[in-house]
Input
Amino acid sequence: MITSIEELQELAQMKKSHNENNPKEPTIDMSCDFYTKQTRIVLENEGIIDPEDIEDYITHGGYMSLFKVLDEMSPKDVIEEIKISGLRGRGGGGYPTGLKWESVSKVQSEQKYIICNGDEGDPGAFMDRAVMESDPHKVLEGMAIAGFACGANKGYIYIRAEYPIAVKRLTRAIKQATRLGILGANIAQSGFGFNIEIRLGAGAYVCGEGTALIASIEGGRGHPRQKPPHLSDHGLWGSPTLLNNVETFANIAPIIKNGGAWFKTIGTKNSSGTKVFALSGLIKNTGLVEVPMGTTLRELVYDIGGGVENGRKFKAIQSGGPSGGCIPEELLDLRVDYESLKEVDSMMGSGGLIVMDDSSNMVEIARFFMDFCASESCGKCTPCRVGTTQLTQLLDKFIAKEATMHDFVLLKEMCLVVKSTSLCGLGQTAPNPVLSTIRYFEDEYLAGIKDD
Amino acid sequence: MSTATDDRYKALEKAIKKLGYEKSSLLEVLNSAQGIFGYLGIDTLKFIAKRLQLPYSKVYGVATFYNNFKLKPKGRHNIVVCTGTACHIKGSEKILQKIEQRYGIKAGGTTSDEALSLLTARCVGTCSVAPVIVFDEQIKANVSLENPLCDIEESIK
Ligand SMILES: Cc1cc2nc3c(=O)[nH]c(=O)nc-3n(C[C@H](O)[C@H](O)[C@H](O)COP(=O)(O)O)c2cc1C
Ligand code: SF4
Ligand code: FES
Output
C-alpha cells in the first residue's frame, strides 16, 4: 500500500538505484532521423518501461502527478491547469479538454462517470492501441486525475475486442494499481476514491461515437442519439459523464507534472502539444510517430517516413479515416493542426496517415471509404442508411466509366444532403472523402463519365 | 443435447451468475457465450434471454448488430483478411480473392468440411506491416499477394 507521495518517491528511488546497478540494454536506437524529428510526450515510455510492471512506471515518475493533485491541488486548480495547457481532444473533434472537464465538474450529481474511449475504429490507425499496450498506467493515471477534477469515482475503459493485448495489460495494470492502493477507495488517505473497469466492444465502428458507446456499455445496440442533452448532463445510466480519448488521457500526467504553460509552448497557437500519427501505406518507414502540432506533412512523409516506397511518385496522403480527406502533393507544406486540416477538407481524426502513390485511383479510394460507412451505418436515420449506399452505387458508375454528367451533379448534391441531415458524426462526415477527392482530383471523376 | 446436461451451458450459467444476472451485462454475456460455444446459436440466445429476463428480440437484435458476434458455427481454422485502409492500399483485395478461389468460399463463409472459415476485419491495428492476415489468432505480416497461403496451407485440415 502506498499512502503518501513520500512513499511513492521512496519506491521510485529504491527501484532506480537497483536499475542503475543492473543496467538494461536499451531496446531502441534513438539516433536515426526517424526519432530525432520526434517529440515524445504521449509515447515517452514506449519501449522504455515494462508495461506489465507498475514499479517500472513509478520509477519513471509514474503516479507522481496523481499524488501531486491529491496532495496540493483542488479540482478547480486541475481544470485551470488543463485549460492553460490548451489540450484538445485527440479522438478527432479537437474539443478543448479543460472546458469539457469544467462542464462535467459543474453539474451537481451524486454519481458521475469517466469513460476512456479506446474503440479506435478508424481503419489504418493504431495509436491508441500502442499507448494502451506500452504504457497502460499512464491512461489510468489520466483517468484518475480526471475523476478527481470532475468529481467522479468510477471509470470505464471501452476497448475494441480486436486488441487482446491491450485488454490484458490494462486489466493487469488496474489490478496492480488497486493492490498498491493507487486505485480504489480513499487513495493516499485523501478521501478521494476511484475505480476503473474494462468494457469490450464487439466490432461496431459507430460505437466510437459518444452516445453510441454509452448505449453499448449499457448492454444494447450501439445506436447514437440526438444531442443535447450532452453527456456532461446525461451520460452513462443518465449520470453526468466525461468521455475522452486514450491519447487525451495520456497527456494529462505530463501536463500536471510540467505545468500547462510548458505544454502550451509545444505545437501551434491553437493546437498545443504533440500528436501521435500512424504512418502507413506506400511509404518506406511505417509506424507510429509523435511530432509537435504544426509539423508539415512534407516532414512527416519525407524526413520521418523516408518518402514513397519503390521509387514511385507521391500522389496523396489520406488523413482522418472515413471522415477525412485526401491531401495532394501541392499541399504537402501544410502545417498539421486541427484548423489547417479542416481548411483543406480533411480532418485530424484520430491520426491515421496513409500515403498513396500514383498507382492509386482516387475515385476507388473514395468508394472504399463510402462502402465502409455504408456497412457501418447503424441504420437509425435515413440520410445515412440510404444515402451512403446510394453514394457507393453512384461511385461504382464512375469506376466502371459509365457515369453521366447528371450523375456527377447528383453525386455532389447527395453528398451535401447526407452531410447536413444525418443524425450523428458518422453520416455527417461520410461524404468527406468524396468531396475532398472531387476538390483535388476532379479529372479522375471526369474520366469516369462516358461520352455520348 | 438439452441445456440442463450440456456442460457448456453450465459454464455459461456460471459466467452469467458472475455478472450478477444484470441486464446491462448482455454484451459481456454474449462475448462469454461465443467464447464457450464458438458461435451464438438460436438456442444459446434464447437461453441468455431467459436468464437475463430480456425479450428474445432484444438479445437477437444486439447479437446481430455487432460484427464480432457470429450466429453460425465456425470452421476448425479461421483466416481473417484485414481489409482496412492500409491493407487495402497494399492489395488486400487480391489476397481475399486468392483465398476465396482456393477454397471455393466467400468472405464470411466456411468450407463444407468445416476445416476453414474465411472472415474479414477492418484493421487489426498492425498497419505498418500491411497487408496483414490473421490465421488462428496469429498475425501474419507483409503477406505475399501472389501466394498468401504459402506457409499455412499445410495446417488447414
Ligand atoms: C462515427 C464516430 C466514430 C468515432 N470513433 C472514435 C474512436 O474510435 N475513438 C475516439 O477516441 N473517438 C472517436 N470518436 C469521437 C468521439 O465521439 C468523442 O468525440 C471522443 O472520444 C471524445 O474524446 P476527446 O475529446 O478526448 O477527443 C468517434 C466519433 C464518431 C462520430
Ligand atoms: S448518421 Fe448513420 S450511424 Fe449516425 S445515427 Fe444516423 S444512421 Fe446511425
Ligand atoms: S489496415 Fe490492415 S492492419 Fe490496419
Observations:
- The interface with chain B takes residues 120-126, 129, 161-163, 199-205, 216-222, 278-282, 286-288, 318, 321, 352, 354, 356, 360, 368-369, 372, 376, 378 of chain A (CB under 8 Å).
